[in-house]
Automatic annotation (TrEMBL):
Residues 26-127, 136-239 form the Phytocyanin domain. Keywords: Disulfide bond, Glycoprotein, Signal. InterPro entries: Cupredoxin, Phytocyanin-like, Phytocyanin_dom. This is Mavicyanin. The keyword Disulfide bond applies. Residues 1-25 form the signal peptide. Coiled coil: none annotated. PROSITE patterns: PHYTOCYANIN, PROKAR_LIPOPROTEIN. It comes from Cardamine amara subsp. amara.
Length: 273
């Protein structure tokens, strides 16, 4: 029975971790409301304001009767609108291109006139977006949960740990007997179990409480006077100072061929609006 309960809890925590860990890919509509169309310098000014990351995607919207999206592999083909050996061709009129590799990506149209009049896009894709540190989930009271009538027990439990903004407390208890009230007050009110103000009330029996602010947080049980017998918790939450981490992907060296460099240099002479 107890094993089953712990197993269930581990599942809950794993699910929460996955939910909290979700990613932040961006979908870009090429050319914004104009879509994928010929307009001199349009794409130059469109991409200039953006940073593309592995995991992001591009959406190309266009009239498929006159146009397509042809991905070419180098700056030479890009500069001269040479679509004779494309890397990929998209032609649905609404194409989603996933950026799965870092490096330069070149897109033109196989409609030569449109390409020559500026319908082309080259972008630099960099490493994946950083993922913010995930908060930990602390099971309050460990395997005993929020059921121990001894304030020393929660005092020790809390003293041994370091809590940061973003971390979570998981309270597990019998909801017929017990509840979780976060109180806003002084140490004295916490000690005497007579709070003057409440910040939040939880009463499901399985409550996840996110620590969103640094400082001292007080939690007590008030439902049946269990605070007086020791069901109370004080946690000191530290501000978030941990550095942002990057997911561990193999770093690929981005090599520029001489023609890539020339093309990039030439581009600096384009007019800016
Ligand atoms: C286009 O590229 C192909 C192969 O990459 C090459 O054989 C051909 O000569 C190129 N055409 C022009 C006009 O540059
Ligand atoms: C691009 O990614 C989306 C969502 O991640 C996926 O549904 C779609 O099949 C992918 N497209 C291609 C061409 O791989
Ligand atoms: C907590 O109390 C302080 C002053 O005692 C007050 O400024 C603050 O708004 C209170 N916060 C909540 C959530 O009640």
């Amino acid at each position: 029975m107890a094993i089953k309960k712990i197993f269930g809890l581990v599942l809950v925590i794993m699910t929460l971790t996955v939910l909290l860990a979700c990613c932040s890919a961006t979908v870009y509509k090429v050319g914004d409301s104009d879509g994928w169309t010929a307009k001199d310098d349009k794409y130059y000014s469109w991409y200039e304001r953006k940073e593309f990351h592995v995991g992001d995607s591009l959406v190309f919207e266009y009239d498929r009767n006159v146009n397509d999206v042809t991905q070419v592999s180098g700056a030479w083909a890009y500069e001269f609108c040479n679509f004779s050996s494309p890397k990929a061709v998209y032609n649905t009129g609404h194409d989603v291109v996933n950026l799965t590799q870092p490096g330069y990506h070149y897109f033109i149209t196989s409609n030569h006139d449109l390409c020559a009049s500026g319908q082309k896009l080259d972008i630099l894709v960099v490493r994946p977006r950083p993922i913010l540190p995930l908060g930990k989930v602390f099971m309050v009271g460990d395997s005993k949960g929020w059921n121990v009538y001894n304030s020393d027990y929660y005092y020790k439990w809390s003293e041994e740990k370091q809590f940061y903004v973003g971390d979570n407390l998981f309270f597990e208890y019998n909801k017929d007997l017990n509840d979780v009230i976060e109180i806003n007050g002084t140490d004295l009110e916490f000690k005497s179990c007579h709070p003057t103000s409440r910040v939040a009330v939880y009463n499901t029996g399985h409550d996840l409480v996110k620590l969103t602010k640094p400082g001292i947080h007080y939690f007590v049980s008030l439902k049946t006077g269990l605070c007086e017998v020791g069901l109370k918790l004080r946690v000191m939450v530290q501000p978030l100072t941990k550095t942002v981490t990057f997911p561990n992907v193999p770093k690929k060296k981005m090599k520029l061929t001489p023609i890539d460099r020339l093309s990039r240099w030439l581009r600096t002479f384009r007019p800016h609006h």
